[in-house]
Amino acid sequence: MLEIIYQDEWIIAVNKPANMLVHRSWLARHETQFVMQTLRDQIGQHVFTVHRLDRPTSGVLIFGLSSEAGRELSQLFEQHKMSKTYHAIVRGWIEGEGVVDYPLREEHDKIANKFATGEPVTQSAITHYKTLAQVEMPYPIGRYDCCRYSWVELAPKTGRKHQLRRHMSHLRHPIIGDTAHGDLKQNRGAAEHFGCQRLMLHASTLSFVHPFTAQPITLEAGMDEIWQRMLQQFGWKD
Fold first, then answer.
1. 91 belongs to a structural domain
2. Position 238 in a domain
3. Could you tell me if residue 219 is inside a domain?
C-alpha cells in the first residue's frame, strides 16, 4: 500500500518509496512493482503521470486523476510554477547556503537514447542549497580516520536529469548512496556503519496553485525508516 498524502477530485499525491519505479519501463523488464500501477489498483481508477522521481529518490509524487488534470499539472511543471524542496545527506561539511549555477550536459542513456541524433547539449542548471546540520562520526572511511556529513535542503530552480545529484557532486559533497555521481567508499562506509542502503535524497515538499480551485497547496512527505534512523544516529532528530 502506498501512503496517499493528498487527494481531491482532480489530483492525488503519494509518498513514493525509495527504489520503486514510477511506471513500467522496458529498461527494467524484470521489475514487478511500479508506483503508477500500484496506485491505480489501490484506488480503483486510472492515474496520469505528471512528473517523475528517480528510482532511488523518495518523496512527494503527484498524479492527475484525469487526462485533463494531468495536462494542467504538467504545464505547471513546464512553466516552473511548481516549487520543490528536497533534503539530502551529503559527504563532508558544507557551510551556510548558496546557489549552484552550473550548466549540465544532457545525460543520454546508452539504451534509451541509442538512436538519438546529435551531440548532447549543455543546459543551464540552478540549485539553491542550505545547510541544516553537520556531524562528525568516529568511523574511518577511506584515508580519513573519521567521517563527516551535512544535512542540506535543496531547491532546484531548473529540472535537469540528476540535477541535484550532479550539482552536489560538483561541489565535492556528493549525496550519500549515489551510485552514479557519488563516492563509492563513502557509500560503503554509510552502509557498514549506519545501515544506509539507499540514496539519501528525499522530495519533501511540493507547492503550487491548484489549477482547478486556484487555492495554494503545499504537499509534504515524511521520511522513511532509514532516514529516521540516520537522523537519530547523527543527533539531528530534533
1. yes
2. no
3. yes
Range of the domain at 136: 3-233
Query: Could you confirm whether 101 is annotated as catalytic?
Result: no
Residue 45 CB contacts under 8 Å (≥ 6 apart), including other chains: 65
Query: What span, in angstroms and rounded, lies between the C-alpha atoms of 199 and 177?
Result: 4
Q: For each of the chain's 238 residues, which pLDDT tens digit applies?
A: 999 999 999 999 999 999 999 976 655 556 668 999 999 999 999 999 999 999 999 999 999 999 999 999 999 999 999 999 999 999 999 999 999 999 999 886 654 444 555 677 999 999 999 999 999 999 998 888 899 999 999 999 999 999 999 999 999 999 999 999 999 999 999 999 999 989 999 999 999 999 999 999 999 999 999 999 999 999 997 6
Kindly report the CATH number assigned to the domain that includes residue 214. 3.30.2350.10
From the candidates 8, 54, 101, 145, give the one annotated as an active-site residue.
Answer: 54
pTM beyond 0.70, yes or no: yes
| Domain annotation covers residue 35 | yes
Q: State the Cα–Cα distance between residues 95 and 132, nearest whole angstrom.
A: 9
Number of domains the chain is built from:
1
